[in-house]
Amino acid sequence: MDTLLSESVIAERVAELGRTISEVFRGRPLTVLGVLNGSIVLVADLIRAIDTPHQIGFLRASSYRGETTVAGDLTIDTNLMPQIEGRDVLLVDDIFDTGRTLVRLLNELRSKNPASIRTAVLLWKQGRSEVEITPDYHGFQIPDVFVVGYGLDYNDDYRHLPEIAVLNEGDY
Ligand code: IMP
Ligand code: MG
């Protein structure tokens, strides 16, 4: 596998994002809401780079990719999620690809009456969007390649890799 983004490059960028987000939400009732499972590594690093008090929580979105993909099939589970009414929510996911996952999640979250919702992703895949929205904060724009590591998976493997690597057909 070829490394696309090294551990140190990611760490530097996440620290920058943390500083930006700290200034935007300082003095606000912030909840960082991670999308399971892909966001766990980013959330763990990002919250330690945000120096204004905040709460964290998670919800789950499963999109059934890989061999069993059914296009547009997305299951959302909010059972583990904390109360967000009246709070500023920062929704954090690993990657913005078609954007459909974030659009669905935003619709779901709006019904819970947060004060505001913004989105942050580590990666933004270029030329793939099928929606009107764009992420409010992103770490890196990347080309249309399949990547794994730093939380991102291929069939639930490779999430533990500390860098972002390109998964080529020969690697499966
Ligand atoms: P979207 O709804 O098309 O934006 O897809 C978002 C989800 O697809 C992400 O949360 C990932 O789980 C998955 N995904 C999209 N591209 C990749 C990739 O290159 N590697 C691993 N997962 C990906
Ligand atoms: Mg995923």
Describe this structure in words.
The protein is an alpha/beta fold. It has a single domain (7-142), classed as Rossmann fold (3-Layer(aba) Sandwich), CATH 3.40.50.2020. It contains three helices and nine strands, in the order E-H-E-H-E-E-E-H-E-E-E-E. The protein has helices spanning 7-25, 40-47, 100-110; strands at residues 2-5, 30-36, 54-62, 75-77, 88-96, 116-125, 137-142, 147-148, 164-166. A six-stranded mixed sheet has the order 4-3-2-5-6-7, sandwiched between helices. Helix 3 links the parallel strand 5 (88-96) and strand 6 (116-125). Helix 1 packs across helix 2. The model has no long low-confidence stretch (mean pLDDT 94). The site of magnesium ion has 2 residues, from loops.
Briefly say what this structure is:
The protein is α/β, with parallel strands linked by helices and 172 residues long. Helix content is 22%, strand content 31%. The strands form two sheets. The protein has a six-stranded mixed β-sheet, with helices on both faces. A three-stranded antiparallel β-sheet has the order 1-9-8.
How many structurally independent domains? 1
- State the total count of DSSP E strands: 9
> What is the CATH top level name?
Alpha Beta
* Rg estimate, integer Å: 16 Å
Tally the helices.
Answer: 3
Question: What small molecules does this complex bind?
Answer: inosinic acid, magnesium ion
Strand order of the largest sheet: 4-3-2-5-6-7
The helix/strand series, from N terminus to C terminus, equals: EHEHEEEHEEEE
